[in-house]
Amino acid sequence: MLETLNNIDTEIFLAINGQYNSLLDFVMYWASNKFIWIPLYLLLLYFLIKNYKWKTLIILVFVAILITLSDQISLHLFKNIFQRLRPCHEPEIADMVHLVNNKCGGQFSFISSHAANTFALAVFLIKIIGRNYKYFTPLILLWAILIGYSRIYLGVHYPGDVIIGTLLGVALGYLIAKLFFWVQIRFYQIKDNNANQGLKFY
């Protein structure tokens, strides 16, 4: 069963990775570069400040926790345990893999940390501010999908790596968003109780 799934995963990977051209090489290479998205992160920060004011500092703490969890889980509970070689390191298909700028990355592939991290952030922000902006949800999901797809195109991940990374990211983004709202509710409950008792809340 696992061998069959692996074969299907490899066939889909080779089909996607094999459809390359110079324009897509350029787009996908930069889509996977975290620094190219700094303007987007600043725009998201602006949206958070606009909606949450000083509470944005608390949200950023939750974002830091979220990305740390996503990154470390994908590394220590998946990559280091399953030790699935990246397509570009896999001897059986390495010669068929199209690489851009000869960038292959680390040794292990399963799961995609890029996919886990971007979908974790996307889902978290959808829960936090998604309903306040009409096109926010589809646009940020398209952003996450683009990054996930770029990892396959660039020859560093199989589709299965990206899919499972996406599921991990979605789950973590949802759970950390729920935790944020729970903390907010608890914060105001404590504040209200202290006010009712004539105490000053700090």
Write the layout of secondary structure elements.
Layout: H1 2-17, H2 22-31, H3 38-52, H4 56-82, H5 113-129, H6 136-153, H7 159-196
Helix pairs in contact: 2-6, 4-5, 4-7, 5-6, 5-7, 6-7
Report on the architecture of this protein.
This protein has a single domain, classed as Up-down Bundle (Vanadium-containing Chloroperoxidase, domain 1). The chain is mainly alpha-helical and 202 residues long. The N and C termini lie far apart (58 Å). The protein is built from seven helices and no strands.
Give the SSE string: HHHHHHH
Please give the share of residues in helix.
Answer: 55-70%
Portion of residues in beta strands equals under 5%
Question: Which architecture name does CATH use?
Answer: Up-down Bundle
The tally of strands reads 0
Structural class: mainly alpha
Total DSSP helices: 7
Q: Number of folding domains?
A: 1
- 3D shape: globular
Taking pLDDT < 50 over at least 5 consecutive residues as the criterion, the unreliable ranges are: 192-202
Could you please say which CATH topology applies here?
A: Vanadium-containing Chloroperoxidase, domain 1
Main beta sheet, described? none
Quaternary organisation:
single chain
